[in-house]
Each structure stands twice: as C-alpha cells, then as structure tokens.
C-alpha cells in the first residue's frame, strides 16, 4: 500500500489487532491495511471535543473559515491522483471514475468556500413604527454524518464543506468498506489549517452503535445520512427524542425514459453514463428503462452494442469501464435479480453472467414488465431492465409507480412534452436529454421515501444554519 499511494495521506492506518477493521480491495480480495475501531465508550468524548472546537470556530469570521476551506480545496486538487488511487483500491471503481469523483467532491469545497460568505440575513418591514425587525443566520452547532461506500469522497464533502463553512463542527462515520478516502481527505483538511477536533473521522465495527450515539447525544444538533430508506427511517425515529435536525438522502429507483421522438444515439450515450457508472452502484443511476414501442427494438439493439464494448476488470487497469461490486452480498443480490427476472419471462440481450470474484457482466434485459420484482427494487448493480410503453399517460403512471422519488431521466425532441413530463414526474431531480445531472451548483435531493433536505447549491448550507429573528423596540 505504501508503495502505491502517498503514505502521508493515510496516517490513521494501524497494525492488525483484534479491534482493528480490515480494509479490502474488492478487485483482488486482498487486505489493503487496517484501521482502528474507535471504542464505543469514547465516542461521546469525541463529541464533547467537537462541541468545544465548534464554539471557537463559530466566532471566526466567515472569510477566515472559508479561506481554510479554499486551501483544503487546493490541496485536494494537488493530491487528486493519490486520492483517486486510494479510492480505486478500496472501492473498486475505475481510476478515471475515481479521479472524476475527487474533482466532483472538491467542487463542493470550492463552492461552499464562497457560499459561506453569503449566508445573508434580511431586514423585515415593520408592522409598528417603534420596532425594527431583522433575521440573522447562525450555525446549528455540532453536525454529524453517516456516509456510504459508493462515493467515499463526494458524499463527505457534500456535507462537511457546507457545515464547516456555516461555522459548525463535523463528525463523520464513513462506511467501513471505504474509510481510507475519508481519512486522506481529513489529513488534507488539517494541513490546510482546520483544527482536528472540527473534522473528526471515526469508524467502529458497529455502524448501528455509532448511529445510536449520534441520534441520542443532545450535543449533536444535526444528522445527515446517505443510505437506504430502511436505515434512514430508523434514524429519523431515533432523532425524534432529541428533536434533532436531519437531512436524508435515501433509496432511489430512477426511471430512464426514451420517447419515440428522442435522438436514440444520444439516449444510448446517456443510458451508458447513467446506468453503468460505478458498476451501477449509484443511488441516482437509471434503474429501469421505459422505451416507447416505436423505438424499442432500435434502442435495445444500440444499447446492447454499446454495452458489449464495456470492459470489466480491476479499476487500476487501463481501459476498464466497470469494476467489481463492493462485496459478495452485493454480487449475490445482483445475480438473484437477473435470475429471477429471467424466470419471470425477461430475456437476456447482453451479459448476464457471474464472473470470477466480485465481477458481474453488464446486463440488458428485454421483455421486462412492470409487475416484475426487478422493476420495483433499487438494483445497485450493472443491470438494465427495458420495458415497453405506448403513450405519455401510461408512461407517467408507470414511472411514478414506486415509493422512491430521487432522480429520473428522459429523452425527447419535443419541448412541450419535455415540460409536461418533467412537471408530472414525482422526483426531486429530472434529467432531460442528459444522463449525468449531479453538480455542486444545483440542489441534490429527493421526495417521497427518497428523503428530504438538499445538498449542494445555495440550499445546501441552509441545512446547517438556524434562522434567528431579532426584534428591536424603543425606536
């Protein structure tokens, strides 16, 4: 490991012990290193340190805080190659994708380094001549986050950057499968001048135990979570006892829609980018494909041709487009969905095979129907089930037939249809003739059981600020 990446970024690694957490390379199943498991009994002490650091941090000017964030951004860009390699080693995604995520994650630090200086209050026209009214915005206090393994840098910076810019301290529990990216990012933040108690990364063998403490400790004023709807629902219930602010980015089941008036070549490109990025292990990736009858066969044929050109393998190898799934549980789940769909009448057009290790061929399934389990489930793997539809009314009904409402996509050449469908889709984000929609300047988040709250954009920093109303009398 030390010969592959800059070891100054991974100072947290430790020797193997009974309490250590092994970090594996999913492409090879080799142990990369070990990290310490913070004893559960010590977590409340870390929260107290974070609280004391936050009280000092909020007294610094927004310009001072944001100058440190800007230095952090510069260091991330400077070390982007090493950060990408670390990510590929522990998460498996192709190196080019990992580099893209590093830049994407860095963009949130850069954005909130500016946005933190614009958390404006307002003056309010008074209803009484002897009063003056205004509002100010103040940090909520200690913010905590639990982040997933699929985007181990971006899912942290999208939360940490606005929290720190707002004047909060930040504690993150990254996934045990991919902690090294989090620790490396923290080291760069410290190098930029951020006090260590302001940004704390902790891991424990039990994510449940950490979540319980985050929810129950009254000093944590905000909890942000990215993960499954089931776990998010549990965390919300736990946070109710302390009336804690929460934001939840939960499960997705994104429809990808191709109308008969679409540019099919562009739709295929968008489908590849949306569906097969990160081996389909993306909450906003296309999960089910609806294609209008008139162009169904053409789209499936061209998609199959494009998928056949994707190379599966170790993300460190040149030309690889699809890396391994994160673990054997994920692989078994993906293969189970494929096999079940075939038993129910779906036809494998491309792929469908389990490969050695944690690899699965990118798969296209035709003749899929709305009633199949594969349509109702978040797949989190490289499977593209394709469903026929006749008209817009039928399409909207099918696309909205899910408990989820995170992302959606459609391709059309008709401007009237574009606005009409975009307004009727019950999703927090809609990509129109575009397969990749996430960026730092637009609000990211869902509706229905995909959660609430927004990350990125000007709305992202408001999640970490309280609005205080001031009423001055005696004028």
From TrEMBL:
Aldehyde dehydrogenase domain mapped to chain residues: 17-469
EC main group: oxidoreductase
A GO biological-process term: gamma-aminobutyric acid catabolic process
Coiled coil: none
Active site: 249
InterPro entries according to UniProt: Ald_DH/histidinol_DH, Ald_DH_C, Ald_DH_CS_CYS, Ald_DH_CS_GLU, Ald_DH_N, Aldehyde_DH_dom, Aldehyde_DH_Superfamily, Succ_semiAld_DH
EC code(s) of this entry: 1.2.1.20
UniProt entry keywords in alphabetical sequence: Oxidoreductase
UniProt entry tagged with the keyword Oxidoreductase: yes
MF terms (GO), sorted A to Z: glutarate-semialdehyde dehydrogenase (NADP+) activity; succinate-semialdehyde dehydrogenase (NAD+) activity
UniProt record similarity statement: Belongs to the aldehyde dehydrogenase family.
Name this protein carries in UniProt: Glutarate-semialdehyde dehydrogenase DavD
Organism phylogeny: Bacteria, Pseudomonadati, Pseudomonadota, Gammaproteobacteria, Vibrionales
């Amino acid at each position: 490991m030390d010969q592959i990446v800059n070891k100054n970024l991974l100072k947290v690694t430790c020797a193997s012990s009974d309490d250590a957490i092994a970090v594996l390379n999913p492409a090879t199943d080799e142990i990369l290193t070990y990290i310490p498991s913070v004893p559960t009994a010590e977590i409340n002490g870390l929260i107290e340190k974070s609280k004391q650091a936050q009280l000092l941090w909020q007294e610094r000017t927004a310009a001072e805080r944001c100058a440190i964030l800007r230095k952090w951004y510069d260091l991330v860009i400077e070390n982007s190659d090493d950060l990408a390699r670390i990510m590929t080693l522990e998460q498996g995604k192709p190196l080019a994708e990992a580099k893209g995520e590093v830049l994407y994650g860095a963009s949130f630090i850069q954005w909130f380094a500016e946005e933190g200086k614009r958390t404006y209050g307002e003056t309010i026209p008074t209803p009484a001549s002897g009063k003056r009214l205004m509002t100010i915005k103040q940090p909520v206090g200690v913010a905590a986050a639990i982040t997933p393994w699929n985007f181990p840098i971006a899912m942290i910076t999208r939360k940490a950057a606005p929290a720190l810019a707002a004047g909060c301290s930040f504690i993150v529990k990254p996934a045990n499968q991919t902690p090294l990216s989090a620790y490396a990012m923290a080291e760069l933040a410290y190098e930029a001048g951020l006090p260590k108690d302001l940004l704390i990364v902790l891991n424990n063998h039990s994510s449940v135990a950490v979540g319980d403490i985050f929810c129950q400790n009254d000093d944590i004023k905000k909890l942000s979570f990215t993960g499954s709807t089931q776990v998010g629902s549990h965390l919300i219930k736990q946070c109710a006892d302390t009336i804690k602010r929460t934001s939840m980015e939960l499960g997705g089941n994104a429809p990808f829609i191709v109308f008969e008036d679409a540019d099919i070549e562009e739709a295929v490109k968008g489908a590849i980018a949306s569906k097969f990025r990160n081996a389909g292990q993306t909450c906003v990736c296309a999960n089910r494909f609806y294609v209008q009858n008139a162009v169904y066969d053409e789209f499936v044929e061209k998609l199959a041709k494009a998928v056949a050109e994707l190379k599966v393998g170790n993300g460190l190898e040149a030309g690889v487009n699809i890396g391994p799934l994160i673990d054997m549980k994920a692989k078994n789940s993906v293969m189970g969905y494929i096999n079940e769909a075939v038993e129910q009448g779906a036809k494998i057009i491309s792929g469908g095979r389990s490969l050695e290790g944690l690899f699965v061929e990118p798969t296209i399934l035709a003749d899929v129907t709305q009633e199949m389990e594969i349509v109702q489930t978040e797949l989190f793997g490289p499977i593209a089930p394709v469903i026929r539809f006749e008209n817009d009314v039928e399409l909207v009904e099918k696309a909205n037939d899910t408990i989820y409402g995170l992302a959606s996509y459609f391709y059309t050449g008709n401007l009237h249809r574009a606005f009409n469908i975009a307004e009727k889709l019950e999703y927090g984000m809609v990509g129109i003739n575009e397969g990749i929609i996430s960026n730092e300047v637009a609000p990211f988040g869902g509706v229905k059981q995909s959660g609430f709250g927004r990350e990125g954009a000007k709305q992202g920093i408001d999640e970490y600020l309280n609005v205080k109303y001031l009423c001055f009398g005696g004028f």
